Amino acid sequence: MDLQIQSKLIRVLLCCIPIIFNTFNGNGVVMASHKVNPNYQSVSAVKVKQVYRTAFHFQPKQHWINDPNAPMYYKGLYHFFCQYNPKGAVWGNIVWAHSVSTDMINWISLKPALVPSKWFDKYGCWSGSATILPGEKPVILYTGVIKEKPEPGYQVQNYAIPANYSDPYLQEWVKPDNNPILKPVQVNISSFRDPSTAWYNNGHWKMLVGSRHYSRGIAYLYRSKDFVRWTRARHPFNEKLGTGMWECPDFYPLSSQGQRNGLDASASGTKYVFKVSLDETRNECYMIGEYDLVQDRFHPDNTSGWTAGLRYDYGNFYASKTFFDPIKKRRILWGWANESSTKDEDVAKGWAGIQLIPRMVWLDPSGKQLLQWPIRELETLRGKKKNLKNVKLNKGDIMEIKGITAAQADVDVTFTFSSFSKVEPYDKKWEKFSPQDLCGINGATVQGGLGPFGILALASKNLEEYTPVFFRIFKTHDKNYKVLMCSDATPSSTNPNEYKPSFGGFVDMDLTNKTLCLRSLIDHSVVESFGEGGKTVITSRVYPELAVYGDAHLHVFNNGSETITVERLNAWSINAPIMN
Ligand code: DQQ
Question: Whole-angstrom distance between the N-terminal and C-terminal Cα of the chain?
Fold first, then answer.
């Protein structure tokens, strides 16, 4: 099918202008922190609305989930916990849901591992992490809320241990009476949470706790010899003025550049990653740097410190946590994707929140950033396959990929081009804009030189709805190329009430081979995209009205004047695993 994208899609673009401007002005960007909705938080789902439920992403049978907690491997099983409201589809009544798996794709749900039951977690068992102590002894560190005031609650840190180490399911957890192990002494009592996995060196266990002092985001470091008595280090592990509350800090060592194998938290790495989740923007930020074992401080490298603005995911992704898989010797990243729908819609559908497909993370050969890739086990769900080779896409071409379930798919494309002659100049005034803003200005319908080209996921038959994931290449005034990757929910739904942000990130890559790769996991209401082998990752939550189930279509497109070749495309229908 050979169509002019611009004319076909102009109607959709026009209806989206207010949203583009919202994003542009920064108004639509910030997703709210956990909002407390007392009227809704104990409203049990009457019926679970299926249409936007994902098939192969982690979610419980019903109700709300948020942060991944304490992922770990124990006696043949992967354990996964997450923040869960057993009573409703909005945040509240938080307990630790618990599921087990042999492959991190098929999940069996167990009873909640931690529920408020003691004075030291009476008002909530909030996020935390697992540490495997010597002798294969797992321990959970988590935040307990002991008073409702001051909002969002008075926070302490607790530990829990398995009641029965010989149970591979770890079904019972004990909260010893010597809890809490940390009280908020000389720290902000209601901004003191989310203990990290602990690591061991120089005769001590070390862990991080997220906090803030006014607008200064802080990760406090605590040390302990016995894992029960902890002392705060004199200096914060890391801090930054103007960044607000730091939630869910994570810290781990990396193997050398380009090496895929992960390391245990206590191993020494060539480099280290420090990550925090920024409550004010609901973005995450990670840095690569050196860890000074004597001073117990983290020093980000110049190339990947705060100014580099590195994020695991430039879309809907928050409160992430990694763990070391000792069996496959890899570091795995889990992240939560909240809904973009309204609270009323969430209540009506009876559920909210998914966990994204676990990703392997390792250090890019450049040493300046991480690479991420969906775990290999996902490929066991691949069904029917469609393959294309050497297909040319001229300006305005859209080509449908038929023969697979487009609403539940895995698509992997390699694009090539033969010349830079038509590349657009990078407008100097864009330098003050974020990649997200640039994607808002330069959507898929805005014709370019080299790009936009990519896929249209979850497209309705006549393209009233579609989620474009695409690249656009620019030439900067110093004659370098800049690759922008966008995942644009703006045209994803004809429902004007949805939050439909246009997410974007730059891809730091070498274009010598004139090749760019894109892999997207499409699962009904989520499009999770990996640019250039996982250099830039963007997740969008979308709620099409028309492009659902069998009415969803998948296309490749080019809206740049330079011809693009789909050198290779593999697309698979994805089967549903066992999901809780
Ligand atoms: N969610 C938890 C907190 C954490 C926040 C509460 C991050 O522990 O800071 O559900 O999403």
Answer: 41
